[in-house]
Amino acid sequence: MAFIATLFLPSSYTCASLDEAVRPEAVAGLFYPGQPEALRDMVANQLKEAAGANVNGRIRGLVSPHAGYVYSGIVAAAGYRQLDPSFKTVILLGPSHRFPLSGASIPCVKAYRTPLGDVPLAPLAVTLQASPLFESVPQAHRREHSLEVQLPFLQVTLKEFRIVPILTNNGDPKALAATLAPHIGEDTLVVASSDLSHYYPYEKAVSLDRLFTAAVPALAFSDVTRCEACGKQAVLTLMHIAKIKGWEGMLIDYKNSGDTAGSKDQVVGYASVAFVDRKEASNRMNETLPTKDRKALLKLARSAIEAKLVKGAKVERPGPLPPSLTEVCGCFVTLHKHGQLRGCIGSIEPVSSLVECVESNARSAAFRDPRFPPLSRDELSDIDIEVSVLSVPQRLDFTDGEDLKRQLEPLVHGVILSRGLNRSTFLPQVWKQLPDKEQFLGHLCQKGGMPQKAWQDPETKVEVYQAEVFGEEDVK
Asked: Is 411 or 383 the better-scoring residue by pLDDT?
């Protein structure tokens, strides 16, 4: 009786060189079209139709989803459409869904195959195999989709490139990042593959995923550990690489399957997050919205409120939308009555387009601010509306209270303080009422239910952002 030799192979081993075998497609025809022409057309269409935030600077790292293209492809495309096509090496990081891993695994194959052709492995794959952090677990790669679904987007957007496919579930992301970072040059892109929360009702999923979309760009590692994301280890590895390299993060797009191709009863979340070189990043607040766009947003805010109060009134949404209004931004809408605050509600994290953010927060400021009764129809003519468009919050590291005060710029920085489950923010214009830095920070602590001097403790998380502020009086 003949015995099959592979029966005695261990579940994992290291390889001194890449085998001649090609890893075949595992999910072609399931997660994406199996025919080359149909696949190329689908990817090209999604790259054309994708929106989301425009990235300032060269993307060096990307968090991208890995569900079927009809569900998550449009979110993935929002990031891939902005890639520099000159990358020569792509490090792919993703989870192993079907086979448990204790460390990081690189397959001993010469290429990955998709309907668009073979993508060769980079020599770096063999180099990394010599590290004790890596092994090769063939069973983990054989049917895994998390890396494979990234390839057609890369094949369409890049020129000639090679890959380093890495699966990781339970390894140390900080150690993995430290091993990878010295090999990441100007021609290397890092992609972390992950979906977000799974199978919650729509509103709960959006709430859960908001923690992820805020924490990842801000490099808030402890917050990410509390998120629901199947590729959490891959994302944390990319975040540690970004910290080592000095890259800045920003959310490009967020949607879930309820937004794309499924019901809202049980949804899966998807995000595209970019990391760019800090020296190449420019702050969005250096760009000013044109007067016509400011007028359109203020008109939208007022009509969203009137539609709730005046019979027959409709929301006047601007259209066609310029790119500046489809950008994913955080924003606040503030209402004043005879110069006094009458409502202010906003979204710090960029989770929706600017027009959606303004429309939603205008209604909330008028009818859901717990500090005030709902706005009445009789008050409409007395209300002045102000919109604040926010830049992406950035983590501010400080050694003590004096260091923090030195770094803060009154009337420029909006400030977010977080400690445990407590969180609060003041918009930059609040400095007008509280110009003293200690007074400003003390009141912000009190607002968030924190000890009044919590701002002096480096354990308190501090983030800053800028705001472009304009009101109805400004654009008459």
From this structure: 383
Chain centroid offset of residue 142 CA:
29
Query: What sign does the dihedral 67-392-62-190 (CA atoms) show?
Result: negative
Quote the CA–CA distance of 162 and 267 in Å, as a whole number: 34
Q: What are phi and psi of 225, to 5 degrees?
A: -65, -20
Asked if pLDDT for residue 271 goes beyond 70, the answer is: yes
Closest CA to 388 of 336, 338, 334: 334
Mean pLDDT of the chain, nearest integer: 90
Determine contact, residues 383/471, Cβ cutoff 8 Å.
no
Q: Which helix (H) or strand (E) holds 59?
A: strand 59-64
Look at the alpha carbons of 325, 462, 64, 119 in this order and tell me if their dihedral is positive or negative.
Answer: positive
* Listed residue (329, 196, 318, 304) closest to 252, CA to CA: 329
Domains of the chain, with CATH numbers? 5-282 (3.40.830.10), 286-391 (3.30.700.20), 394-468 (3.30.1490.150)
- Tokens found for residue 303: 């009509």
Is residue 111 within 8 Å of 121, Cβ to Cβ? yes
Can you name the residues that pair with 460 across neighbouring β-strands? none
Is pLDDT of 7 > 50? no
